[in-house]
Design brief:
By secondary structure, this protein is α+β, with helices and mostly antiparallel strands. Helix content is 30%, strand content 24%.
Length: 205
């Protein structure tokens, strides 16, 4: 009986250590990164509410929240950290966290830029927010750069691939350019020939 008890205690201890020492890559849920914005709305405390940028050190730009390191952790854990700080001002704080991820949309889109997007925003919606693809853009060949990997997405049929997946902090979405034989090759060659002809005409004179 004592041996069984000892084994159970050992197992529980090991489980507890594993849960506490789980590396960041094993955590689940959206993760904040430097450059992201965390919008905090605290009921009855406007002085504690606002949009706060995550610094390169992983903290928030605010006198009260700057002690919190929120980068690299899921939003559920960030929620608990914020709750602990707000508990100093109110026994049962009521607040809402609304993260905004930094996502770059570039290439053949009408409004290329760095966007602050909510985690529920899909890749297809991110492209739409950037004005959609231009007439030269290949919506069937969208390149997504995420965590060192590259993915090619067909947004003409977003339901079949990653198009309906939510964005992640640091995503780079690039719309490829559609190749045109005349525009990309024939027209530039014709311009060069015309320029050479003009130069020769001047020299002959």
């Amino acid at each position: 009986m004592k041996a069984l008890t000892a084994v159970l205690v050992l197992l529980l201890t090991a489980t507890g250590l594993t849960a506490q020492s789980a590396p960041p890559e094993l955590r689940t849920g959206p993760v904040l990164r430097p450059g992201d914005v965390l919008r905090i709305t605290v009921l009855r405390h406007p002085e504690l509410s606002g949009e706060f940028v995550v610094t390169t050190e992983g903290t928030l730009v605010h006198p009260v929240y700057r002690e919190l390191t929120v980068a690299g952790m899921p939003l559920s854990e960030a929620d608990e950290l914020v709750r602990a700080v707000l508990s100093r001002y109110e026994a049962r704080p009521e607040f809402v966290l609304d993260p905004l991820f930094q996502v770059a949309v570039s290439g053949e889109v009408r409004q290329p830029s760095l966007y602050a997007l909510r985690p529920a925003t899909t890749i297809a919606q991110a492209v739409a927010l950037a004005g959609g693809a231009t007439e030269r853009g290949r919506i069937d060949r969208v390149r997504l750069f995420r965590s060192g990997d590259e993915h090619v997405i067909d947004l003409s049929r977003p339901e079949l691939g990653m198009g309906m997946e939510p964005v992640q902090s640091g995503d780079q979405i690039v719309i490829e350019r559609r190749t045109s034989l005349f525009r990309d090759y024939i027209a530039p060659a014709g311009s060069v020939v015309a320029a050479l002809a003009a130069v020769l005409n001047i020299m002959i004179r």
